[in-house]
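Problem: given the chain below (269 residues), write out its structure.
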Amino acid sequence: MIPAPVRYVRARSFEEAFEALRDREAKVLAGGQSLLPVLKLRVVRPSLLVDIGELAVDGVESRDGDVRVGALTTWEALTDARELERPAFAAVGECAREVGDLQVRNRGTLGGSLAHADPASDLPAVVLALEARLVLRSAAGEREVDAADFFVGPFLTALAPGELLVEVRIPTPPAGSGSAYAKVEHPASGFALAGAAALVQPDGRRAVAVTGVSAHPFLLPDGAEPEQALAEAEIYGDELAPAEYRRHLAAVVVRRALERAEARTKEDR
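Solution.
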């Protein structure tokens, strides 16, 4: 299909972007790999596209105890960022390498995916397990939101009208930590029928997040046995997989992610 007619603005500064976003029916265009398909299907019909591709919010750096990733950093850039080479951050690279195909990974962005908040996307589980904080900027200033508070429903986030996601800050886990991401994907789309990210720390603490099985990604309760937690979770079914099958897949990918993360704790010394 062909998208409905829409006005287009290429913002060359944050001021230009915020001015354009005063239109409440505007949509932000980052890499476009999530937005363009729904525009073509006319699922969304914005009055205005605000292209933020020229804003200087990409790249990966280590600063003040965090790894900071700019929102316009592409998936491909994440796969070989030296700041993410430690086993504690392995989940990020594993996730990025499994997103889409080569073309998508070279155009799609971390921030665009998180802001789109598809309930079957991979990265939300990773930022949840790694206890990331998301930096949101508007004309009024900046604020930080914990990843655990960012995803509120299918395609719904804590972003307020006129706000942009500009950075993801991942706290550096202690030495001896390991993380992993595992998923069972739909063979045609590559989206997760069930995906799980895990972080295991040297003191035995574990954080596990699940995606693809519910209205939004979620953390398993701290200290809970994964099987029991998943048995009590609200899991949805659809034409791709019934709820109980998704629950089974979730248990499988949680186990795989935990096993790989645990093995990596021995590498990060």
